[in-house]
Specification:
Strand order of the largest sheet of chain A: 9-10-11
Order of helices and strands of chain B: HHEEEEEHEEEEEEHEEEEEEEEEEEEEEE
Radius of gyration of chain A: 39 Å
Number of strands of chain A: 13
Helix content of chain B: under 10%
Strand content of chain B: over 45%
Oligomer: heterodimer
Largest interface: A-B, 39 and 54 residues
């Protein structure tokens, strides 16, 4: 019984326990875990690299982040295996990144291929496989990058365009640090042994930008696509079409060139942003930038090795600049290309230049030419800057002269520069020197000290002087090493031919003149209407300097002021556009506006303002005759176009220049004696337009002088009988006309009559724009 | 498919089949001659949650060979079984196989004995009673019921009147024998042996899951097997008491495993490469036992002190185990309360013995892949009967209940057999296990078999 009970108890225990025992939780093997280890820190890298990209990272951040990357690479090498036992294909990297890091937007197959190709270039090895050893090398290379990046950090915000401002010193420091880092990285790489091409780099950059753009949802891809062609064009310009960089030194030179371009880009970004020509610092910035551009060109691979850069490559650069909308002017690329080639041709061939198509290269000679002129400009600017640090402070011209007398350039500087200073000295020692006011308008005064000058006006003079020099260098047949020559009418015609296209497209020339060459007219205007004009058919540096100054002052600055006034006084007919694409000016309203504001508008012509203040009743007549004389558009339209306005303003200035030259008694009008004194200047012109009978050839100058006086007094050229009568009266009555005065109204009348007689207002040969 | 002979070293099949024990018992009681026996049985997994293999029932044909205790010459206790349709479950268990020679006067109880081969000895009661596998290797074909095997070497036994000295010297090492397994061509463990719990099928790599592929590097077998073993024990005894001290310097019976994990990017697989080595340790034991006709009481302690460190190929990149010293203590009380009936009560506690991993993939949150102690605390009660009571024919039964409060499992094992006649017997076994999920603090080898409740029944024939 005992046994049975025991068995029963045991069975009972067993059965009651069964239900508990026969159920149980499902066993799950504990997962093996390959821990993220050093990869964990990678999660923070995008944010941290963004900080670096903004120039906000500290040295300790960079140290930590890059060490993370180094460690992660080594960990990756140790913890993964690729398609090959000891190596990874591009597809391996794609799979890896796609699964662990770039789950939503993996790198493209092309991008992966390009990265492996870059590896091959930088670290060596095969072009389609990254060996484990190379991964370790990459880690070491990132170590080098880390060490080089840390000293770069203080300048990184400047380099990455993240700084709000940067002065030239900061930019220089940043570029020096960049260059040093680049050299160190280059030395550690095998790039110089690789056959990595620019096209390879191009593909990499395209893929990188596309990838970064997708990752950051930014416009970076668009920006890269927009600007990258520029890099390619610049590379061609500096390194050549088929640049073969075979040695470390070649690559170092290329790096040097790239750093220089980077330097330029930074300078353009920081120094010319919101640029205003307001201070010596501003001008210095431009000077340094231009100097740098020339330095880069002169030290480029192409110039160093071949002494030239093919224009075709420069043309491509221009196309890309247009494409990227960096050049955004009303000039077609074709015209711009023709223009720069023309300038180059004039630089190197001077009068021997025939056609822009013949200019095939930018030569070292061209670069030296520009550097010389830049050097002249910068030297003179240095002197101007030394006069006063305050751009608006007014100086007496005598002070300017005295200062220039004491200015000495460094003995080491080029001999040519010494001569350039002598030429400038001639200009500022004119009896009535040309001076700009603060608004860029010419001050026409009898006394050189009246009106004064400022840093701004002197800087404009310097700029004008450089244009004058370059024009003479390019077109004068009489240049010598020490002396810049003079221009003839023929050479100005050439000049016009050279720049006609760009002038027309920029609306600097009146489009209505078509194929008409205005060079002849310009030659006459420079020869007759400048203070230094002598009518000798040759345009010397003073005449040309004054002419260019007047074109800038009157043709640009004063015209702007007139248009501003028209705008302000509601004198613009905004519903219609003239041939320049600008609104017409309503004639009646404009006259009222000009009359009301002539004191301010023409303040740089104090004698004129003073005259009409003295004789206000003459103003209306003067204005009417002026408009009638200048008008190109139809008088019945009741509107003035932009061409009309330019001629109006130029006529005012020419007239004031003539009065300044010949109104000896400063009474605001010309007496017969003063007109006779002016006559020699115009004799050569009068000879051209006047037929003198052969039997009177021996006294032609005498006759023409009287004819000129008649012209000025009566406002029109004398007919044969008029002439004879006037000459007879002058011979018989020496006192005839002593009371006659030709005031500003009269002078304008002469301009008008001459224009009418010569029919073609645009090519009258005397007045016009 | 590749079947790795290495497995015999790494997870060197182990285990214990109760039926075989049953057979031994029967033979002892019925035969005194050297006689083989055959068995045929069915093993069924009865838990509704069982899912280690698709099949739940396995048929076996087994054979065993046990020499009588007084047999001289080549002595053996060998058991083998062939599993129908489940080759991984087949096994060969060499518990003893040694040549026994009395040196000198064979009739003298104090004659020195020379034994050469594999032989189980009384090195430590704690090791024997709990099948710890510290002293002697264990057959862990069924890890819930390990069975000790003998050390292999040259044994010299010096019996004296109150002292017995046994010495062992060897240059051959056979580690624990675990359940068999297969790894496929694709590096996956095949589902074929319920007692082999494969490691994870997937691996977490940088927080993302990949399928895992195992690559077991075959070691130089000679280098593994040829290892030094020195052991000795000295027992002072009287009729009712013995005190024994023992010491061994030898390789640990469980092979240390080191591994390295890689991501095979091209195939998106985690590749886990496992290598093995040999870890030496010093084992010091002390046993004290008092016994009478009805009671046996004793305490046993052993100190397991790692010696040196296992050397692995490419050691620096491997994650490898580091052993801590352990002290295992056990007390026991066997009480014969009626003829044929024995009640056994015993307790085990292991202090120390932590196994942690060091290396690139080591993680404090994960259990080491190398095994050491199946559990570190347990108490068990066993009730055993041998006799004819009630059935008029020989039968035996044993019910064991093991409980661990620290390792949170309950294990009930029942086995029984009835001798039907001179040649035939029938036998059965039940195993019920209940275990709580593992935690960082609770690490053991039992929990993984929580659904391996089984029922076994068979018939045996003695030649």
């Amino acid at each position: 019984m005992c046994f049975k009970k025991l068995i029963s108890v045991l069975l009972l225990i067993s059965l009651s326990a069964c239900s508990d025992f026969l159920r149980g939780p499902k066993w799950e093997s504990e997962n093996l875990n390959i821990p993220s280890g050093p990869l964990v820190c990678l999660q923070k890298l995008p944010d941290n690299f963004a900080k670096i990209g903004k120039g906000e990272a500290q040295a300790s951040d960079v140290d930590t982040d890059f060490k993370c990357l180094e460690g992660a690479l080594l960990y990756f090498k140790d913890r993964t295996v690729g398609t090959y036992k000891d190596g990874y294909t591009a597809e391996d990297f794609r799979r890896f990144f796609g699964k662990y890091f770039l789950i939503e937007n993996n790198i493209s197959k092309t991008f992966a291929d390009e990265l492996v190709l870059l590896k091959s270039a930088v670290l060596g090895g095969k072009q389609d496989i990254v060996s484990k050893e190379e991964v370790a090398k990459l880690s070491s290379y990132i170590g080098v990058l880390r060490k080089e990046l840390i000293p770069l950090l203080p300048s990184l915000h400047v380099l990455l365009l993240e700084a709000k401002t940067a002065d030239p010193g900061q930019i220089a420091t940043a570029i020096a640090a960049f260059k040093k880092a680049g050299q160190a990285l280059m030395k550690e790489s095998l790039l110089y042994k690789s056959d990595y091409t620019f096209e390879d780099l191009h593909r990499l950059v395209v893929e990188t930008s596309s990838f970064v753009g997708i990752q950051t949802n930014s416009q970076i891809s668009t920006d890269f696509k927009k600007y990258w062609p520029l890099v390619g064009s610049l590379k061609k310009v500096l390194l050549g079409e088929q640049a073969t960089l075979k040695s470390l030194q070649d690559w170092m030179n290329a790096l040097h060139s790239f750093s220089d371009i980077y330097d330029l880009a930074l300078r353009k970004h920081y120094l010319l942003k919101d640029f205003k020509f307001n201070s010596s610092q501003d001008v210095d910035k431009v000077g340094e930038l231009l100097d740098k551009v020339l330095y880069v060109l002169n030290h480029s691979h192409q110039i160093k090795n071949y002494n030239f850069i093919p224009c075709q490559q420069v043309d491509e650069l221009i196309d890309d600049l247009y494409e990227a909308q960096i050049i955004n002017i009303d000039v077609t690329p074709a015209t711009l290309k023709k223009t720069y080639r023309t300038i180059l041709g004039r630089m190197s061939l001077g009068v021997g230049f025939k056609s822009a198509n013949e200019v095939l290269n930018v030569t070292q000679e061209n670069i030296h030419f520009i550097r010389r002129e830049l050097s002249v400009w910068r030297n003179l600017q240095t002197w101007i800057n030394s006069l006063t640090p305050d751009p608006s402070k007014t100086l007496l011209w005598s002070e300017v002269r005295d200062s220039f007398e004491q200015y000495r350039i460094q003995p080491s500087q080029i001999e040519d520069l010494q001569y350039s200073l002598l030429q400038f000295k001639k200009i500022i020692h004119q009896k009535r020197p040309i001076k700009f006011n603060l608004k860029g308008r010419l001050i026409l005064q009898y006394d050189m000290n009246l009106g004064g000058v400022t840093w701004t006006s002197l800087s404009l003079s310097n700029m004008t002087y450089i244009f004058t020099r370059m024009m003479l260098r390019g077109y004068s047949e009489t240049n010598s090493f020490r002396q810049i020559g003079v221009l003839s009418e023929r050479e100005l015609i050439r000049w016009y031919d050279d720049f006609k296209d760009i002038g027309l497209e920029m609306k600097a020339f009146d489009p209505r003149q078509g194929q008409t060459n205005s060079g002849s007219r310009s030659a006459k205007e420079a020869n007759f209407f400048m203070i230094s004009s002598n009518g000798d058919k040759e345009i010397d540096s003073s005449e040309l300097y004054e002419y260019i100054s007047m074109l800038f002052s009157a043709g640009v600055k004063s015209v702007e002021a007139f248009r501003d006034l028209a705008e302000k006084e509601n004198s613009l007919d905004k519903g219609s556009k003239d041939v320049f694409g600008l609104p017409y000016i309503k004639e009646k309203e404009f006259k009222i506006a000009v009359s009301k504001n002539r004191h301010q508008l023409l303040s740089h012509l104090p004698r004129l303002v003073e005259y009409f203040h003295q004789f206000p009743d003459r103003w209306s007549l003067f204005y009417d005759k002026l408009v009638a004389a200048a008008r190109i558009s139809s008088p019945q339209s009741g509107r003035l176009d932009h061409g009309d306005l330019r001629v109006i303003v130029m006529m005012i200035h020419y007239q004031e220049s003539l009065l300044l030259s010949f109104d000896a008694n400063r009474d605001g009008s010309l007496s017969v004696a003063e007109i006779e004194a002016a006559a020699p200047r115009f004799l050569s012109f009068l000879k051209e337009i006047t037929e003198i009978p052969i039997f009177l050839k021996s006294v032609d100058e005498w006759l023409l002088r009287h004819g000129f006086v008649y012209l000025v007094i009566n406002g029109h050229r004398p007919s044969g009988p008029d002439w004879i009568q006037y000459v007879w009266e002058r011979m018989t009555n020496p006192m005839l006309g002593t009371e006659v005065r030709v005031d500003r109204v009269g002078v304008i009348q002469v301009f008008r009559n001459l224009k009418d007689e010569l029919k073609n207002p645009l090519d009258s040969g005397l007045i016009g724009q | 498919m590749r079947s790795l002979s290495l497995i015999f070293f790494i997870f060197w099949p182990v285990s214990f089949v109760f039926a075989q024990n049953t057979g031994v018992s029967v033979s002892k009681s019925s035969k005194s001659e050297f006689s083989p026996r055959l068995r045929l049985w069915n093993d069924s997994f009865i838990s509704g949650d069982y899912e280690a293999t698709s099949a739940k029932n396995f048929g076996f044909l087994g054979a065993s060979l046990v020499t009588p205790a007084d047999y001289q010459g080549l002595k053996m206790d060998i058991d083998a079984a062939f599993a129908f349709n489940a080759p991984l479950l087949s096994y060969l268990n060499l518990k003893d196989i040694y040549f026994d020679k009395v040196l000198g006067n064979e009739n003298s109880p104090y004659a020195t004995r020379l034994q050469v081969g594999r032989k189980r000895s009384d090195w430590s009661q704690a090791d024997q009673r709990w099948d710890l596998g510290v002293w002697e290797p264990v057959f862990k074909w069924n890890p819930l019921n390990p069975e000790r095997q003998g050390l292999t070497g040259i044994f010299l036994i010096f019996p004296f009147e109150n002292v017995e000295i046994e010495m062992l010297g060897s240059s051959i090492y056979l580690p624990n024998q675990g359940p068999s397994f297969q790894v496929s061509e694709t590096g996956e463990f095949k589902q074929g042996n319920p007692w082999f719990m494969p490691p994870a099928k997937s691996v977490q790599i940088w927080s993302r899951t990949s399928q895992v592929e195992y690559n077991l590097l075959k070691p130089n077998e000679t280098a593994v097997v040829v290892q030094k073993t020195y052991a000795t024990r000295v027992r002072a005894k009287t009729d009712s008491f013995f005190l024994q001290g023992s010491y061994a310097f030898k390789p640990m019976n469980e092979l240390p495993l080191a591994y390295d994990g890689l991501l095979d990017i091209a195939r998106d697989r985690g590749v886990v490469e496992i290598v093995t080595s040999v870890q030496y340790h010093e084992v010091t034991g002390a046993d004290l036992e008092w016994h009478s006709k009805w009671i046996k009481w004793g305490v046993s302690a052993l100190r397991d002190k790692p010696f040196g460190k296992a050397e692995f190929s490419d050691e620096l990149k491997r994650t490898r185990p580091i052993y801590a010293e352990a002290l295992a203590t056990s007390s026991y009380l066997d009480f014969i309360f009626s003829p044929g009936w024995v009640a056994k009560l015993q307790y085990l506690s292991i202090e120390g013995g932590e196994l942690k991993e060091v290396g690139p993939l080591a993680s404090a949150d994960r259990t080491a892949i190398t095994k050491r102690y199946a559990y570190t605390q347990a108490q068990s009660l066993e009730l055993e009967y041998r006799g004819r009571r009630g059935l008029k024919r020989p039968w035996q039964s044993s019910l064991n209940y093991t409980l661990s409060t620290k390792n949170q499992f309950d294990l009930i094992r029942w086995r029984g057999s009835i001798q039907l006649n001179k040649y035939w017997n029938i036998f059965a076994e039940t195993l019920l296990v209940k275990a709580q999920p593992l935690t960082k603090e609770n690490q053991n080898e039992i929990a993984q078999f929580g659904n391996h409740d089984r029922l076994l029944a068979g018939v045996g024939y003695v030649f």
